[in-house]
Structures are given as structure tokens and as C-alpha cells.
Amino acid sequence: MEATLLLVEDDDTIRETIADALQLEGYAVTAVANGRDALNLLQKAPAEAPYGLVVLDLMLPGLGGLEVCRALRAARNSTPILVVSARDSETDRVLGLEVGADDYLVKPFGMRELVARCRALLRRSALQQQEPSVLEHANLKLYPEECRVTRDGVLVNLSPKEYRLLELFMRHPRRVWSRDKLLEQIWGYDYIGDSKTVDVHIRWLREKLEANPSEPEHLLTVRGFGYRFG
After folding, report:
1. Closest-CA residue to 131 (of 172, 90, 161)
2. 57, 161, 209, 222: most buried by Cβ count inside 10 Å?
3. Facing residues of 197 across strands?
């Protein structure tokens, strides 16, 4: 069965157009016009039939899209979120991804691209659900379903980007990742910021995970290539 998608868009015409396009692809679509209704539906969704994806506008009446993202991630709800917004600045895109969105699509957009991005997020989510419920390495444990990391049994507070970086590393131990590939995987293929942001996040992770950040044992630099874990 195809997934059930939750569409959150206050513009009637856009909401109907997106819903029609997704339904033509075989998806069941629940459409609402505000963030409060979206949160209520997500919180009440039965465990055996959760929403597979949220397509979320940012500029909503009352509770805005960013607040919806924050509330879901704070509640450890890992439902994939595709933001669709007319806000097209780099700052807006980065902020949307930082607060918990998985992808960001700027209006106006083509329906084929929207459907393709929905399929990609659903495919990634399905793969993650098939993978181990706990990832372990030395004294570190990562709980994907809870978005939680411990070091020697003690909870480590990570930002969303730090968590996603660590999860990527732990799912692919010893694989060498270039900065560009990490940017593509974590920040998105259309990220146009400085690649040095990867180095900054790696440094922050080392400070939280390594006994001696200047001589890391987990997150290693492979000179001339990038980084690897383990």
C-alpha cells in the first residue's frame, strides 16, 4: 500500500493542486489548512498507521510551519517533512532544515519535482525502518527511533545536524566521506553555503563524543579525502 501523506497548506488552490497530483500517483492524502490541525492529526495517528510524510508550508495562519517542525522533533516524531515555501533565501532554507525539515522546495515548483521529492523521502524512510533499532560503536549508542545518543550511558545533547551527521557515520562505519558528499547528504544537494560548515560540525561532534577531541578515536580525518567513522 502507498503511504498516507499529510498536506498542510493554507492556500486553497495550491492545496487542491498538490493533493490532486499526489493522489494521481496513488497516495492517500489528508489535507489541512493550518499548523494546529496538522499537529493534532500527527499526535493522534495510530502507531500501526502513521503518516508517511508531511508536506508543509511555512507561512500558515496561527501556528507556523517552523513551529510545527520544532514541535514534532521535540516530541521525537521522526515523520519525514518536505517544506514547500515561497521563502527562497539561503537563510530561510537553512533555518527550515535546521529545525527538522528533511527537504525544502521553493515555490513555484513543478508537480513532477514535488512527487519525485516525496518518493525520495518515503524511500529513505522505508530503508531506515529496516535498519537496526540501535547503532553501537565502542562507548557510543545511537537510537534512531528516539533521535537519542548516549556516551558511556549518559545522554549527549546534539543539534539536528550533529545528530544526522553522526547517524550517517554510524550507519556506514569506516566509509570515507568527502565534505561535498556530506553536504549533499545532510544539508541537501541545493545547499550553497561554505563547505567549511562541515568542519565546524565535525569539531562540535568531537567535543561532545571524544575523550580527547584533539586526538579523536571515533571521527577521524582522512587527509586529502574527508572524514570517516571508526
Report:
1. 172
2. 57
3. none
pLDDT in tens, 112-151: 999 999 999 998 887 766 656 789 999 999 998 888 999 9
Describe the crossing of helices 12-24 and 111-129 by its angle, rounded to 10 degrees: 60
* Cell numbers at 178, concatenated: 568527502
- What is the average pLDDT value for the chain, to the nearest integer? 90
**What's the start-to-end Cα distance of the chain, in Å?**
38
Angle at 183 between CA 146 and CA 138, to 5 degrees: 45
Q: With the C-alpha atoms ordered 183, 188, 189, 190, is the resulting torsion angle positive or negative? A: negative
Q: Count CB atoms within 10 A of the CB of residue 211.
A: 11
Contacts of 158 by beta carbon, 8 Å cutoff, 6+ apart? 149, 166, 205, 208
Helices (H), 85-190: 90-98, 111-129, 160-171, 179-182
User: How many angstroms separate the CA atoms of 94 and 92, rounded?
Assistant: 6
Count Cα atoms within 13 angstroms, Cβ side, for 227.
25
Query: Would you state the cell numbers that stand for residue 125, as one nine-digit string?
Result: 524512510
The CA distance from 120 to 106, in Å, is: 17
From residue 177, alpha-carbon distances to 53, 74, 147, 164 in Å are 28, 29, 22, 14
4, 29 Cβ separation under 8 angstroms: yes
